[in-house]
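Any chance you could type out a protein's amino acid sequence plus the matching backbone structure tokens because I've never seen that pairing?

——
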Amino acid sequence: MDLEQQATEIAVSEHAQKLGVLATQLGYQGSLTVGAVEDEIRFYQQRSVEAVMELGKRLLILKEMTPHGEFSKRIEMLGISKRTAQRFMSVVLKFSKTTSMSLLEKSGNGTKLLELMVLDDDDIEIIDAGGSIGDVSLDAIETMSVRELKKALREAKADNAAKDQLIQKKDSKINELDANLSKANSPVEIQKRAESEDQELEKAALETISTESLMLLNAVMRYQNAINGVLDLANEKGIHQLFDRIDESVVASYQRIAQFSQNLGIQIDFENMVTPEWLFPQAEAASKAPNAEEE
């Protein structure tokens, strides 16, 4: 036996071994010849769940048995498009690795089973365990028409996509907040924040003083108007004894204001504030000039 023939036999043996492993994994117990597999494919070209699964198994085996490029020709002769064959094979690969017997039973026909291909493995496990994905559950799958199932699956996937997008946005926001928090806790930001807080406190204090000062001035104006009103009434009615009482009240009120300024440590010359010397330069000059008689 020459080396080339020996290498060919080794390759054939390895391929046969690989094919046997695949058949075992798929649970296929039929004959491993191209003709036998094609005959069985024709037999299972119906649309029951079992048929879809068995057809998918045999398509996978046929693909493994045939050389590159020959599989497409053979399934074409069997009247199966490449896309349909791919769906059947995908169904087997998806559902054979799960324990989704309840899901397979409830689907009832192969067309529904093919529609269920859009589900993720996690979704399949949830439904098979008695849960639901949107409106899709074991009982719903059993009672729905193919069209209703297709619509429900499309809506469920859209809802999941929306939820995933929302989760991504939340994660992004959390990361952003975490980054901002880390930045906010840096020494530079802490110092800036402290300076900013001091400025805000100073601004708030000045606004408070300004507001209260205006309120005080308004109160003084109202007080003055009230005094003038009483004086007018006293003059009109000839109640002269009111004048002394009014003077006492005004003096007492402004004495309290003067006392308050002293308590704050602020000295106020009320006379000079009302009639400052710079308003009467001539009087100031006269007061400083030498007395003529003294000259």
User: Anything to note?
Assistant: Residues 247 and 261 are 21 Å apart (CA to CA). Residues 100-178 form one domain.
